[in-house]
Amino acid sequence: MALCRPDHGEVFNIHPTGEQYTEFFSRAIVRTPELEVIRLVLPRGESLREHGFAGDCTLQCVEGRVQLDVGGQQVLLRESEMTCLAAHQLHALHALTHAVVLVTIVLHKSGVVVH
User: Fold this and answer.
1) Residue 59 CB partners (closer than 8 Å, separation 6+)
2) SS3 label, residue 71
3) Which domain holds residue 31?
């Protein structure tokens, strides 16, 4: 998985369209000691099984619609919508359409690395 630091100034295309979903892939696009930003590319019907992160995180739907299963509830996350999850909160995702989700994870809290 290719990682870069934000001071490189590289511009990333995070928004595949149409058939580009077969060419784009999920990848960590930024990682520093404090945070990680991951671009998830989820073709329609693809799911990520239940998981959690040691740090707080945000999920921002850039394109499409995903179902977020969290705390026994199913939540619809649509394009331009965002949510926040607490550290260790288990969740799963299911792409209802082709979708792109940016995940931002806090890796460092109060001087202690939490990943």
Assistant:
1) 68, 77, 82, 83, 84, 85, 93, 101, 102, 103
2) coil
3) 17-113
Token digits of residue 94? 């299911």
Q: Quick one: which of 16, 17, 18, 14 has its CA closest to 27?
A: 14
What is the C-alpha to C-alpha distance for residues 11 and 75, in angstroms, rounded to an integer?
A: 31
Strand boundaries in 1-115, DSSP class E:
27-31, 35-42, 47-51, 57-63, 65-70, 73-78, 82-85, 91-95, 99-106, 108-109, 112-113
CATH number for the domain that contains residue 35: 2.60.120.10
pTM: 0.78
Tens digit of pLDDT for each residue in 62-96?
A: 999 999 999 999 999 999 999 999 999 999 999 99
